[in-house]
Amino acid sequence: MLVDSHCHINFPELAGDLEGVVSRMRDADVTHALCVSVSLETCPEVLAIAERFPNIYASVGVHPNERGGAEPTVDGLVKLAAHPRVVAIGETGLDYYREGGDLEWQRDRFRTHIRAAQRCSKPLIIHCRQAPEDTLAILKAEGAEEIGGVMHCFTETLPVAQQAMAMNFHISFSGIVTFSNARALREVARDVPLERLLIETDSPYLAPTPYRGKTNEPAYVRWVAEQISEIKHVGLAEVAKATSGNFFSLFKPEAP
Ligand SMILES: [Zn+2]
Ligand SMILES: [Zn+2]
């Protein structure tokens, strides 16, 4: 049994074939998935998917690269998070790769999410791209340790992973660990203990090898699990058991 801890099956690449997505999950022994929100405008469709499928959970939040939509507030996020299918706040964080200039607005938005997560006692889903120092500094300054969460689609170094783990965060690896040029990341994955590790697809993007370049979907999280099993020299069943157990103890979903 495997769990995809981060996907976007509400995106147009997958939204038209949700029955197919869920049935291919079943065929691949992927029992659950977490559909992550990226904007307030698309939160309702994410919540609708989680209402329709008992094995798909939801998060609420606004992605750091999202521009032009409604800006989240602490109160607004807390209200959305009261929905019984919502298990986390995010995705939030910092992305200095796709945005330039004065990014104080991005850091403010990040702080808003952390405060909302603290108010509703739900873990954070953190997106961090080319901004590890500021991400860790803000998590620390805001006391995010009390709430914890996950550094999703992790591509940073081992010291960054260790600092995040010291603040009560899990580390989630995507299909990037299967890419031939990701040797350094595989070494990080080898050194992250299984009890802190999650796996994800971030679908529809980042399809793992052998599907690289194609539309990704939650069923393919199996390929991430197999890569982790190879890197760590532990059986696939052990990787599955640990990562699924971590998912449920971190997100604590309510029974449907
Ligand atoms: Zn992300
Ligand atoms: Zn994402």
- Residue share in helix: 40-55%
Bound molecules: zinc ion
Look at the structure and give the mean pLDDT.
97
Large-scale geometry: globular
Order of helices and strands: EHHEHEHEHEHEHEHEHH
Radius of gyration: 17 Å
Main attributes of the structure:
single chain; 256 residues; eight-stranded parallel beta sheet; 10 helices; 17% strand; binds zinc ion
Describe what this molecule looks like in 3D:
With 256 residues, this protein is α/β, with parallel strands linked by helices. Helices cover 41% and strands 17% of the residues. It has helices at residues 12-15, 18-27, 43-52, 74-81, 104-120, 132-141, 158-166, 183-191, 221-232, 236-251, and strands spanning 2-7, 30-35, 56-60, 86-95, 124-129, 149-151, 169-173, 197-199. An 8-stranded parallel sheet has the order 1-2-3-4-5-6-7-8. Helix 4 (74-81) links the parallel strand 3 (56-60) and strand 4 (86-95). The mean pLDDT is 97. One zinc ion (ZN) binds at residues 6, 8, 36, 91, 202.
Concise account of the structure shown:
The chain has helices at 12-15, 18-27, 43-52, 74-81, 104-120, 132-141, 158-166, 183-191, 221-232, 236-251, and strands at residues 2-7, 30-35, 56-60, 86-95, 124-129, 149-151, 169-173, 197-199. The chain has 256 residues and is of the alpha/beta class.
SSE topology:
Elements lengths: L1 E6 L4 H4 L2 H10 L2 E6 L7 H10 L3 E5 L13 H8 L4 E10 L8 H17 L3 E6 L2 H10 L7 E3 L6 H9 L2 E5 L9 H9 L5 E3 L21 H12 L3 H16 L5
Parallel strand pairs: 1-2, 2-3, 3-4, 4-5, 5-6, 6-7, 7-8
Helix pairs in contact: 4-5, 9-10
The structure holds zinc ion (2 copies).
